[in-house]
Protein backbone atom coordinates (compact mmCIF):
# COMPACT_ATOMS: atom_id res chain seq x y z
CA UNK A 1 0.00 0.00 0.00
CA UNK A 2 1.28 3.41 -0.93
CA UNK A 3 1.91 5.60 2.09
CA UNK A 4 1.25 9.30 2.24
CA UNK A 5 4.52 11.20 2.34
CA UNK A 6 5.37 14.86 2.57
CA UNK A 7 1.89 15.39 4.01
CA UNK A 8 1.57 18.60 5.95
CA UNK A 9 -0.86 21.27 6.94
CA UNK A 10 0.46 24.30 5.14
CA UNK A 11 1.80 27.32 7.00
CA UNK A 12 -0.55 30.31 7.14
CA UNK A 13 0.64 32.87 4.60
CA UNK A 14 -1.48 32.91 1.43
CA UNK A 15 -5.23 32.55 0.92
CA UNK A 16 -6.84 30.15 -1.45
CA UNK A 17 -10.63 29.92 -1.69
CA UNK A 18 -12.24 26.65 -2.73
CA UNK A 19 -15.95 26.75 -3.53
CA UNK A 20 -17.87 23.48 -3.90
CA UNK A 21 -21.40 23.48 -5.27
CA UNK A 22 -22.94 20.29 -3.95
CA UNK A 23 -25.80 20.40 -6.46
CA UNK A 24 -23.55 20.69 -9.50
CA UNK A 25 -22.70 17.90 -11.91
CA UNK A 26 -19.73 18.18 -14.19
CA UNK A 27 -19.54 17.19 -17.82
CA UNK A 28 -17.82 13.85 -17.30
CA UNK A 29 -20.01 12.52 -14.49
CA UNK A 30 -23.48 13.57 -15.58
CA UNK A 31 -25.67 11.47 -17.84
CA UNK A 32 -26.64 13.82 -20.63
CA UNK A 33 -29.75 13.72 -22.77
CA UNK A 34 -29.02 15.23 -26.17
CA UNK A 35 -29.68 17.75 -27.47
CA UNK A 36 -29.79 20.29 -24.64
CA UNK A 37 -32.23 22.69 -26.26
CA UNK A 38 -32.94 26.04 -24.63
CA UNK A 39 -36.31 26.10 -22.90
CA UNK A 40 -38.29 28.24 -20.49
CA UNK A 41 -38.78 25.09 -18.41
CA UNK A 42 -35.10 24.19 -18.06
CA UNK A 43 -33.89 23.25 -14.58
CA UNK A 44 -30.44 24.84 -14.66
CA UNK A 45 -27.80 25.32 -12.01
CA UNK A 46 -27.57 29.11 -12.17
CA UNK A 47 -29.63 31.76 -10.42
CA UNK A 48 -30.17 33.23 -13.88
CA UNK A 49 -30.54 31.56 -17.27
CA UNK A 50 -29.38 33.18 -20.53
CA UNK A 51 -30.26 31.77 -23.93
CA UNK A 52 -28.44 32.61 -27.13
CA UNK A 53 -31.46 34.22 -28.78
CA UNK A 54 -31.02 36.79 -31.54
CA UNK A 55 -31.58 39.55 -28.98
CA UNK A 56 -28.85 38.19 -26.69
CA UNK A 57 -25.98 37.60 -29.11
CA UNK A 58 -23.44 39.35 -31.30
CA UNK A 59 -21.99 37.48 -34.26
CA UNK A 60 -18.30 38.22 -34.66
CA UNK A 61 -17.95 41.16 -32.27
CA UNK A 62 -17.53 41.82 -28.54
CA UNK A 63 -19.66 44.20 -26.49
CA UNK A 64 -18.00 47.60 -26.03
CA UNK A 65 -18.66 50.33 -23.45
CA UNK A 66 -21.83 51.44 -25.30
CA UNK A 67 -23.42 47.97 -25.28
CA UNK A 68 -26.82 47.64 -23.60
CA UNK A 69 -26.88 44.88 -20.97
CA UNK A 70 -29.39 42.10 -21.47
CA UNK A 71 -29.55 41.50 -17.71
CA UNK A 72 -28.34 43.08 -14.46
CA UNK A 73 -27.33 40.80 -11.57
CA UNK A 74 -25.93 41.33 -8.07
CA UNK A 75 -22.39 40.31 -7.22
CA UNK A 76 -22.09 36.62 -6.36
CA UNK A 77 -24.80 35.54 -8.80
CA UNK A 78 -24.53 32.31 -10.74
CA UNK A 79 -25.51 32.57 -14.39
CA UNK A 80 -26.15 29.69 -16.79
CA UNK A 81 -25.50 30.40 -20.48
CA UNK A 82 -26.59 28.27 -23.41
CA UNK A 83 -23.67 29.02 -25.72
CA UNK A 84 -23.60 28.20 -29.42
CA UNK A 85 -20.66 27.08 -31.53
CA UNK A 86 -20.21 28.87 -34.85
CA UNK A 87 -19.17 25.66 -36.60
CA UNK A 88 -21.87 24.48 -39.00
CA UNK A 89 -23.28 28.01 -39.19
CA UNK A 90 -20.57 29.79 -41.15
CA UNK A 91 -20.72 30.72 -44.81
CA UNK A 92 -18.03 28.26 -45.88
CA UNK A 93 -20.27 25.54 -44.44
CA UNK A 94 -23.41 26.83 -46.18
CA UNK A 95 -24.86 28.83 -43.25
CA UNK A 96 -27.40 26.05 -42.75
CA UNK A 97 -26.57 23.77 -39.80
CA UNK A 98 -29.37 21.30 -40.56
CA UNK A 99 -28.07 20.61 -44.06
CA UNK A 100 -24.44 20.74 -42.94
CA UNK A 101 -24.76 18.17 -40.16
CA UNK A 102 -27.16 15.97 -42.14
CA UNK A 103 -24.21 14.87 -44.29
CA UNK A 104 -22.72 13.31 -41.13
CA UNK A 105 -25.91 11.51 -40.17
CA UNK A 106 -27.19 14.11 -37.71
CA UNK A 107 -30.96 14.51 -37.91
CA UNK A 108 -32.61 17.93 -37.81
CA UNK A 109 -33.95 17.37 -34.30
CA UNK A 110 -30.36 16.86 -33.07
CA UNK A 111 -29.36 20.34 -34.25
CA UNK A 112 -29.82 23.15 -31.72
CA UNK A 113 -32.80 25.43 -32.32
CA UNK A 114 -30.80 28.53 -31.44
CA UNK A 115 -28.13 27.57 -33.98
CA UNK A 116 -30.84 27.21 -36.64
CA UNK A 117 -32.31 30.62 -35.77
CA UNK A 118 -28.95 32.43 -35.83
CA UNK A 119 -27.96 30.92 -39.18
CA UNK A 120 -31.38 31.72 -40.71
CA UNK A 121 -31.41 35.30 -39.40
CA UNK A 122 -30.76 38.40 -41.48
CA UNK A 123 -27.58 39.14 -39.51
CA UNK A 124 -25.24 40.63 -42.13
CA UNK A 125 -22.33 38.47 -41.04
CA UNK A 126 -19.26 38.96 -43.26
CA UNK A 127 -17.35 35.68 -43.42
CA UNK A 128 -14.10 37.30 -44.56
CA UNK A 129 -14.27 40.45 -42.43
CA UNK A 130 -16.06 39.58 -39.20
CA UNK A 131 -15.07 37.25 -36.37
CA UNK A 132 -16.76 33.82 -36.50
CA UNK A 133 -17.85 33.61 -32.87
CA UNK A 134 -21.36 33.72 -31.39
CA UNK A 135 -20.94 35.99 -28.33
CA UNK A 136 -23.69 35.94 -25.68
CA UNK A 137 -24.32 38.86 -23.32
CA UNK A 138 -23.43 41.28 -21.89
CA UNK A 139 -24.41 40.99 -18.23
CA UNK A 140 -24.20 44.05 -15.99
CA UNK A 141 -22.90 43.54 -12.44
CA UNK A 142 -24.53 45.77 -9.84
CA UNK A 143 -22.10 48.26 -8.31
CA UNK A 144 -19.24 47.51 -10.72
CA UNK A 145 -17.06 50.53 -11.44
CA UNK A 146 -14.05 51.11 -13.62
CA UNK A 147 -10.98 50.02 -11.65
CA UNK A 148 -12.74 47.10 -9.96
CA UNK A 149 -12.16 43.44 -10.84
CA UNK A 150 -14.65 40.75 -11.86
CA UNK A 151 -13.97 37.25 -10.54
CA UNK A 152 -15.43 34.57 -12.81
CA UNK A 153 -15.64 31.03 -11.42
CA UNK A 154 -16.48 28.25 -13.87
CA UNK A 155 -18.87 25.91 -12.09
CA UNK A 156 -20.34 23.60 -14.72
CA UNK A 157 -19.96 22.81 -18.42
CA UNK A 158 -22.20 20.37 -20.30
CA UNK A 159 -22.07 19.51 -24.00
CA UNK A 160 -25.35 20.42 -25.64
CA UNK A 161 -24.83 18.05 -28.58
CA UNK A 162 -22.72 14.87 -28.96
CA UNK A 163 -20.63 16.20 -31.82
CA UNK A 164 -18.33 19.04 -32.80
CA UNK A 165 -16.13 20.30 -35.63
CA UNK A 166 -12.44 21.17 -36.12
CA UNK A 167 -11.77 23.59 -38.98
CA UNK A 168 -8.75 24.73 -40.98
CA UNK A 169 -9.35 27.85 -43.09
CA UNK A 170 -7.18 29.66 -45.60
CA UNK A 171 -4.62 32.15 -44.25
CA UNK A 172 -5.55 31.46 -40.62
CA UNK A 173 -3.86 28.26 -39.43
CA UNK A 174 -0.24 27.86 -38.36
CA UNK A 175 0.91 26.25 -41.61
CA UNK A 176 0.37 28.33 -44.76
CA UNK A 177 0.36 25.22 -46.97
CA UNK A 178 -2.93 24.10 -45.37
CA UNK A 179 -5.66 23.70 -46.44
CA UNK A 180 -4.48 22.18 -49.68
CA UNK A 181 -7.65 23.02 -51.59
CA UNK A 182 -7.61 26.22 -53.64
CA UNK A 183 -10.06 29.01 -52.78
CA UNK A 184 -12.06 29.99 -55.87
CA UNK A 185 -13.43 33.42 -56.71
CA UNK A 186 -16.88 31.83 -56.95
CA UNK A 187 -16.84 31.00 -53.22
CA UNK A 188 -20.11 32.01 -51.55
CA UNK A 189 -22.71 30.76 -49.13
CA UNK A 190 -24.42 29.17 -52.13
CA UNK A 191 -21.16 27.47 -53.15
CA UNK A 192 -19.43 26.82 -49.81
CA UNK A 193 -17.20 24.11 -51.28
CA UNK A 194 -15.47 26.77 -53.39
CA UNK A 195 -13.92 28.29 -50.27
CA UNK A 196 -11.62 25.27 -50.16
CA UNK A 197 -11.67 25.20 -46.36
CA UNK A 198 -11.50 21.93 -44.45
CA UNK A 199 -13.83 21.09 -41.55
CA UNK A 200 -13.58 17.75 -39.76
CA UNK A 201 -16.68 16.34 -38.06
CA UNK A 202 -15.98 14.82 -34.60
CA UNK A 203 -18.52 12.86 -32.55
CA UNK A 204 -17.98 12.55 -28.79
CA UNK A 205 -18.69 9.52 -26.62
CA UNK A 206 -18.28 8.44 -23.01
CA UNK A 207 -16.09 5.67 -21.55
CA UNK A 208 -15.52 5.00 -17.85
CA UNK A 209 -17.02 8.33 -16.90
CA UNK A 210 -14.76 10.28 -19.30
CA UNK A 211 -15.85 11.90 -22.55
CA UNK A 212 -13.75 11.43 -25.69
CA UNK A 213 -13.68 13.01 -29.11
CA UNK A 214 -12.77 11.02 -32.17
CA UNK A 215 -11.55 11.68 -35.70
CA UNK A 216 -12.26 8.91 -38.19
CA UNK A 217 -10.08 8.50 -41.29
CA UNK A 218 -11.55 5.65 -43.32
CA UNK A 219 -11.93 3.44 -40.27
CA UNK A 220 -8.69 4.54 -38.59
CA UNK A 221 -9.64 6.44 -35.45
CA UNK A 222 -7.80 9.06 -33.43
CA UNK A 223 -9.40 9.26 -29.98
CA UNK A 224 -8.68 11.92 -27.35
CA UNK A 225 -10.26 12.99 -24.02
CA UNK A 226 -12.29 16.17 -24.02
CA UNK A 227 -11.90 19.03 -21.57
CA UNK A 228 -14.62 21.63 -22.21
CA UNK A 229 -14.03 25.32 -21.65
CA UNK A 230 -15.40 28.65 -22.81
CA UNK A 231 -12.91 30.17 -25.24
CA UNK A 232 -14.42 33.63 -24.80
CA UNK A 233 -14.98 35.15 -21.36
CA UNK A 234 -14.50 38.85 -20.84
CA UNK A 235 -15.80 42.28 -19.91
CA UNK A 236 -16.30 45.31 -22.13
CA UNK A 237 -13.23 47.34 -23.12
CA UNK A 238 -13.37 51.11 -22.63
CA UNK A 239 -13.98 52.01 -26.26
CA UNK A 240 -16.84 52.80 -28.60
CA UNK A 241 -15.05 51.11 -31.51
CA UNK A 242 -16.35 47.89 -33.01
CA UNK A 243 -14.22 45.13 -31.46
CA UNK A 244 -13.64 41.92 -33.39
CA UNK A 245 -14.21 38.71 -31.44
CA UNK A 246 -11.00 37.18 -32.82
CA UNK A 247 -8.02 38.72 -30.97
CA UNK A 248 -7.89 38.37 -27.16
CA UNK A 249 -7.48 41.59 -25.19
CA UNK A 250 -6.42 42.58 -21.69
CA UNK A 251 -10.01 42.40 -20.41
CA UNK A 252 -10.48 38.86 -21.74
CA UNK A 253 -12.37 38.01 -24.88
CA UNK A 254 -11.03 35.15 -27.01
CA UNK A 255 -8.34 34.02 -24.55
CA UNK A 256 -8.56 30.37 -25.65
CA UNK A 257 -6.76 29.12 -22.51
CA UNK A 258 -7.68 25.47 -22.10
CA UNK A 259 -6.96 25.49 -18.35
CA UNK A 260 -10.05 27.67 -17.83
CA UNK A 261 -12.36 24.67 -17.55
CA UNK A 262 -14.59 23.52 -14.67
CA UNK A 263 -13.02 24.57 -11.36
CA UNK A 264 -11.04 27.48 -12.76
CA UNK A 265 -11.21 31.16 -11.85
CA UNK A 266 -10.61 34.08 -14.20
CA UNK A 267 -9.96 37.61 -12.92
CA UNK A 268 -10.86 40.43 -15.32
CA UNK A 269 -9.98 44.13 -14.93
CA UNK A 270 -13.14 46.24 -15.24
CA UNK A 271 -12.79 49.26 -17.51
CA UNK A 272 -16.43 50.43 -17.72
CA UNK A 273 -19.17 50.79 -15.11
CA UNK A 274 -21.29 47.65 -14.90
CA UNK A 275 -18.42 45.43 -16.14
CA UNK A 276 -20.60 43.99 -18.99
CA UNK A 277 -19.59 40.31 -18.92
CA UNK A 278 -20.03 38.10 -21.99
CA UNK A 279 -19.07 34.60 -23.08
CA UNK A 280 -19.02 32.29 -26.09
CA UNK A 281 -16.74 30.29 -28.41
CA UNK A 282 -17.41 27.02 -26.55
CA UNK A 283 -14.83 24.25 -26.98
CA UNK A 284 -14.99 20.55 -26.21
CA UNK A 285 -11.18 20.42 -26.12
CA UNK A 286 -8.22 22.39 -27.45
CA UNK A 287 -4.56 21.55 -27.76
CA UNK A 288 -2.03 24.21 -26.78
CA UNK A 289 -1.41 26.30 -29.86
CA UNK A 290 -4.75 25.50 -31.56
CA UNK A 291 -2.57 25.07 -34.63
CA UNK A 292 -5.10 24.27 -37.40
CA UNK A 293 -7.24 27.30 -36.46
CA UNK A 294 -10.04 25.95 -34.29
CA UNK A 295 -10.31 23.61 -31.37
CA UNK A 296 -12.90 20.83 -31.26
CA UNK A 297 -15.70 23.38 -31.32
CA UNK A 298 -18.99 22.34 -29.73
CA UNK A 299 -21.91 24.08 -28.04
CA UNK A 300 -21.92 24.07 -24.23
CA UNK A 301 -24.27 24.91 -21.41
CA UNK A 302 -22.01 26.73 -18.97
CA UNK A 303 -22.57 28.10 -15.50
CA UNK A 304 -20.31 30.74 -13.96
CA UNK A 305 -20.35 32.70 -10.72
CA UNK A 306 -19.75 36.44 -11.15
CA UNK A 307 -18.30 38.15 -8.08
CA UNK A 308 -17.36 41.81 -7.91
CA UNK A 309 -14.04 42.63 -6.22
CA UNK A 310 -13.85 46.31 -5.42
CA UNK A 311 -10.60 48.14 -6.09
CA UNK A 312 -8.12 47.34 -3.32
CA UNK A 313 -9.78 44.04 -2.32
CA UNK A 314 -7.16 41.58 -1.04
CA UNK A 315 -8.73 38.85 -3.19
CA UNK A 316 -7.40 40.56 -6.33
CA UNK A 317 -4.14 38.92 -7.52
CA UNK A 318 -1.25 41.19 -6.57
CA UNK A 319 0.27 41.52 -10.02
CA UNK A 320 1.01 45.23 -9.56
CA UNK A 321 -0.35 48.33 -7.87
CA UNK A 322 -3.09 48.41 -10.51
CA UNK A 323 -4.66 45.23 -11.88
CA UNK A 324 -4.95 45.68 -15.65
CA UNK A 325 -4.42 42.25 -17.24
CA UNK A 326 -6.63 39.12 -17.15
CA UNK A 327 -5.27 36.47 -14.75
CA UNK A 328 -6.27 32.81 -14.31
CA UNK A 329 -6.24 30.25 -11.52
CA UNK A 330 -6.98 26.54 -11.13
CA UNK A 331 -6.66 23.97 -8.38
CA UNK A 332 -3.01 23.42 -9.25
CA UNK A 333 -1.77 26.64 -10.85
CA UNK A 334 -1.67 30.41 -10.90
CA UNK A 335 -1.85 31.55 -14.53
CA UNK A 336 -0.34 34.93 -15.50
CA UNK A 337 -1.23 35.76 -19.10
CA UNK A 338 0.72 37.43 -21.91
CA UNK A 339 -0.91 38.74 -25.12
CA UNK A 340 0.74 40.31 -28.15
CA UNK A 341 0.78 40.03 -31.94
CA UNK A 342 4.45 39.09 -31.55
CA UNK A 343 4.83 35.73 -29.79
CA UNK A 344 8.14 36.80 -28.25
CA UNK A 345 6.49 39.88 -26.75
CA UNK A 346 3.60 37.78 -25.44
CA UNK A 347 6.17 35.59 -23.69
CA UNK A 348 7.86 38.62 -22.14
CA UNK A 349 4.55 39.93 -20.85
CA UNK A 350 3.62 36.60 -19.27
CA UNK A 351 7.03 36.37 -17.57
CA UNK A 352 6.77 39.95 -16.32
CA UNK A 353 3.28 39.23 -14.96
CA UNK A 354 4.69 36.12 -13.24
CA UNK A 355 7.55 38.04 -11.61
CA UNK A 356 5.21 40.80 -10.49
CA UNK A 357 2.63 38.40 -9.07
CA UNK A 358 5.00 36.24 -7.03
CA UNK A 359 7.07 39.14 -5.75
CA UNK A 360 4.02 41.21 -4.75
CA UNK A 361 1.84 38.35 -3.53
CA UNK A 362 4.47 36.77 -1.27
CA UNK A 363 7.02 39.53 -0.73
CA UNK A 364 9.75 37.71 -2.65
CA UNK A 365 12.86 39.18 -4.26
CA UNK A 366 12.31 39.70 -8.01
CA UNK A 367 15.70 38.29 -9.00
CA UNK A 368 15.07 35.09 -7.05
CA UNK A 369 11.55 34.82 -8.45
CA UNK A 370 13.01 35.15 -11.96
CA UNK A 371 15.44 32.33 -11.19
CA UNK A 372 12.59 30.17 -9.85
CA UNK A 373 10.51 30.76 -12.99
CA UNK A 374 13.41 29.57 -15.13
CA UNK A 375 13.67 26.33 -13.17
CA UNK A 376 10.14 25.53 -12.02
CA UNK A 377 7.50 27.02 -14.32
CA UNK A 378 6.18 25.96 -17.71
CA UNK A 379 5.02 28.58 -20.21
CA UNK A 380 2.41 27.36 -22.66
CA UNK A 381 1.24 28.81 -25.96
CA UNK A 382 -2.53 29.10 -25.67
CA UNK A 383 -2.98 29.83 -29.36
CA UNK A 384 -1.09 31.30 -32.33
CA UNK A 385 -4.02 31.77 -34.73
CA UNK A 386 -6.08 34.64 -33.25
CA UNK A 387 -4.04 37.58 -34.61
CA UNK A 388 -2.99 38.43 -31.05
CA UNK A 389 -1.05 35.45 -29.77
CA UNK A 390 -1.25 34.15 -26.22
CA UNK A 391 1.24 32.66 -23.77
CA UNK A 392 0.44 31.82 -20.18
CA UNK A 393 2.43 30.57 -17.21
CA UNK A 394 1.52 27.56 -15.10
CA UNK A 395 2.93 28.36 -11.64
CA UNK A 396 2.48 25.29 -9.40
CA UNK A 397 0.90 26.22 -6.09
CA UNK A 398 2.50 23.26 -4.35
CA UNK A 399 5.92 24.86 -4.89
CA UNK A 400 4.85 27.41 -2.26
CA UNK A 401 3.67 24.92 0.37
CA UNK A 402 5.85 26.62 2.99
CA UNK A 403 4.16 29.96 2.30
CA UNK A 404 0.48 29.04 2.03
CA UNK A 405 -2.24 27.37 4.05
CA UNK A 406 -5.01 25.51 2.25
CA UNK A 407 -8.26 24.53 3.95
CA UNK A 408 -11.69 23.48 2.81
CA UNK A 409 -14.90 24.71 4.41
CA UNK A 410 -17.56 22.02 4.01
CA UNK A 411 -21.00 23.16 5.19
CA UNK A 412 -19.37 25.41 7.79
CA UNK A 413 -16.76 22.87 8.90
CA UNK A 414 -13.10 23.70 8.21
CA UNK A 415 -11.11 20.84 6.69
CA UNK A 416 -7.30 20.91 6.53
CA UNK A 417 -5.87 20.23 3.08
CA UNK A 418 -2.50 18.52 2.72
CA UNK A 419 -0.02 17.85 -0.07
CA UNK A 420 1.38 14.55 -1.30
CA UNK A 421 3.06 13.90 -4.65
CA UNK A 422 2.21 17.45 -5.67
CA UNK A 423 -1.52 16.95 -5.18
CA UNK A 424 -4.02 18.26 -2.64
CA UNK A 425 -5.62 15.70 -0.32
CA UNK A 426 -8.43 15.90 2.26
CA UNK A 427 -9.58 13.49 5.00
CA UNK A 428 -12.27 11.40 3.33
CA UNK A 429 -14.67 10.70 6.20
CA UNK A 430 -14.60 14.16 7.75
CA UNK A 431 -15.08 15.90 4.42
CA UNK A 432 -17.77 13.71 2.92
CA UNK A 433 -19.79 13.44 6.11
CA UNK A 434 -19.75 17.24 6.25
CA UNK A 435 -21.10 17.20 2.69
CA UNK A 436 -23.97 14.95 3.74
CA UNK A 437 -22.66 11.53 2.67
CA UNK A 438 -22.94 8.40 4.76
CA UNK A 439 -19.49 6.71 4.84
CA UNK A 440 -19.17 2.94 5.37
CA UNK A 441 -15.82 1.13 5.60
CA UNK A 442 -15.29 -2.55 4.81
CA UNK A 443 -12.03 -3.52 6.49
CA UNK A 444 -11.89 -6.93 4.85
CA UNK A 445 -12.05 -5.63 1.29
CA UNK A 446 -10.61 -2.17 2.04
CA UNK A 447 -13.56 -0.65 0.23
CA UNK A 448 -15.34 2.60 1.05
CA UNK A 449 -19.03 2.97 0.27
CA UNK A 450 -20.64 6.42 0.10
CA UNK A 451 -24.39 6.94 0.02
CA UNK A 452 -26.41 10.12 -0.23
CA UNK A 453 -30.02 9.93 -1.31
CA UNK A 454 -30.06 7.82 -4.47
CA UNK A 455 -26.30 8.22 -4.98
CA UNK A 456 -24.13 5.15 -4.32
CA UNK A 457 -20.34 5.42 -4.74
CA UNK A 458 -17.75 2.68 -4.17
CA UNK A 459 -13.97 2.99 -4.06
CA UNK A 460 -10.93 1.01 -2.92
CA UNK A 461 -7.80 2.24 -1.20
CA UNK A 462 -4.87 2.41 -3.60
CA UNK A 463 -7.09 2.45 -6.68
CA UNK A 464 -8.08 5.28 -9.00
CA UNK A 465 -11.13 3.33 -10.22
CA UNK A 466 -14.48 4.30 -8.71
CA UNK A 467 -18.12 3.46 -9.38
CA UNK A 468 -20.96 5.96 -9.11
CA UNK A 469 -24.39 4.31 -9.26
CA UNK A 470 -22.81 1.39 -11.07
CA UNK A 471 -20.98 3.53 -13.61
CA UNK A 472 -17.23 2.92 -13.72
CA UNK A 473 -15.09 6.06 -13.41
CA UNK A 474 -11.33 6.01 -13.94
CA UNK A 475 -9.74 9.21 -12.62
CA UNK A 476 -6.57 10.84 -13.87
CA UNK A 477 -5.36 11.60 -10.36
CA UNK A 478 -3.57 9.38 -7.88
CA UNK A 479 -5.68 7.00 -5.79
CA UNK A 480 -6.73 7.93 -2.29
CA UNK A 481 -4.30 7.06 0.46
CA UNK A 482 -3.96 6.45 4.18
CA UNK A 483 -2.02 8.52 6.71
CA UNK A 484 -1.96 7.66 10.42
CA UNK A 485 -4.97 5.36 9.88
CA UNK A 486 -6.90 8.19 8.23
CA UNK A 487 -8.05 7.80 4.64
CA UNK A 488 -7.12 10.77 2.44
CA UNK A 489 -9.00 11.60 -0.77
CA UNK A 490 -7.64 13.70 -3.68
CA UNK A 491 -9.52 16.99 -3.76
CA UNK A 492 -9.98 16.47 -7.49
CA UNK A 493 -12.11 13.37 -6.80
CA UNK A 494 -14.85 15.62 -5.45
CA UNK A 495 -15.23 16.88 -9.01
CA UNK A 496 -14.32 13.81 -11.02
CA UNK A 497 -16.29 11.23 -9.01
CA UNK A 498 -18.98 13.03 -6.99
CA UNK A 499 -19.68 15.66 -9.63
CA UNK A 500 -19.15 18.55 -7.20
CA UNK A 501 -17.95 21.79 -8.73
CA UNK A 502 -14.76 22.92 -7.02
CA UNK A 503 -13.42 26.38 -7.77
CA UNK A 504 -10.27 27.99 -6.46
CA UNK A 505 -9.24 31.57 -5.74
CA UNK A 506 -6.34 33.13 -3.87
CA UNK A 507 -6.92 35.88 -1.33
CA UNK A 508 -3.93 37.73 0.03
CA UNK A 509 -2.50 35.68 2.92
CA UNK A 510 -5.16 33.09 3.74
CA UNK A 511 -6.44 30.02 1.93
CA UNK A 512 -10.01 29.06 2.74
CA UNK A 513 -12.38 26.68 1.02
CA UNK A 514 -16.15 27.18 0.99
CA UNK A 515 -18.97 24.74 0.27
CA UNK A 516 -22.02 26.46 -1.15
The CATH class of the domain at 407-515 is identified as Alpha Beta
Shape: globular
Rounded average pLDDT: 90
* Count of alpha and pi helical runs: 6
Strand content: 35-45%
For the record, give the distance between the C-alpha atoms at the N and C termini, rounded to a whole number.
34 Å
Please summarize the sheet with the most strands: 9 strands, mixed
| CATH architectural name of the domain at 407-515 | 2-Layer Sandwich
* Unreliable segments of 5+ consecutive residues: 1-14, 19-29, 511-516
CATH overall fold name of the domain at 407-515: Copper Amine Oxidase, Chain A, domain 1
Percent helix: 10-25%
Question: Based on helices, strands and strand pairing, what is the structural class?
Answer: mainly beta
- The rounded Rg comes to 23 Å
- According to CATH, the homologous superfamily of the domain at 407-515 is Copper amine oxidase-like, N-terminal domain
How many strand segments?
A: 36
**What strand line-up does the widest sheet have?**
2-6-19-8-16-20-21-23-22
Overall description:
The chain is mainly β and 516 residues long. It contains 6 helices and 36 strands. Among the domains are: 327-400, Roll (Endonuclease I-creI); 407-515, Copper amine oxidase-like, N-terminal domain (Copper Amine Oxidase, Chain A, domain 1, 2-Layer Sandwich), CATH 3.30.457. α3 (343-362) crosses α4 (366-376). The radius of gyration is 23 Å and the shape is globular.
Helix-strand layout with pairing:
Blueprint: E1 16-21, E2 48-50, E3 57-59, E4 61-62, E5 71-73, E6 77-82, H1 97-102, H2 113-120, E7 134-141, E8 149-159, E9 163-168, E10 198-207, E11 210-217, E12 220-225, E13 229-235, E14 243-244, E15 252-254, E16 265-269, E17 277-285, E18 296-297, E19 300-309, E20 327-329, E21 333-340, H3 343-362, H4 366-376, E22 378-383, E23 389-396, E24 407-410, E25 413-416, E26 418-420, E27 423-427, H5 428-434, E28 438-442, E29 447-452, E30 455-460, E31 465-468, E32 471-474, E33 481-483, E34 486-490, H6 491-496, E35 501-506, E36 512-515
Helix pairs in contact: 3-4
Amino acid sequence: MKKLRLFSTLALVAVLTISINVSAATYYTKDLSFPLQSSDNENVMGDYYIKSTLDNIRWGYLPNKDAEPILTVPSGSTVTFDTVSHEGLLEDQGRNPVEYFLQYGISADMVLDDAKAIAASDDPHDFLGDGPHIVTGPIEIEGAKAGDVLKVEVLELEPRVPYGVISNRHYKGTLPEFPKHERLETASVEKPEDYGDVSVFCPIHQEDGVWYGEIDDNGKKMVFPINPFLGIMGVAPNTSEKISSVPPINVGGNLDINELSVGSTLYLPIEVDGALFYTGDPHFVQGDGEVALTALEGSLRGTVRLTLLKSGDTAIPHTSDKFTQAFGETQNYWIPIGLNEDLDEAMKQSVRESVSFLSNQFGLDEAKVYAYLSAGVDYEVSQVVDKTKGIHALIPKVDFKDLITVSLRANGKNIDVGICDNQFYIPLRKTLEALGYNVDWNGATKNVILTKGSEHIEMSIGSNIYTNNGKRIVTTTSPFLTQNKETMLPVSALNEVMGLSVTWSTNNSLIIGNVN
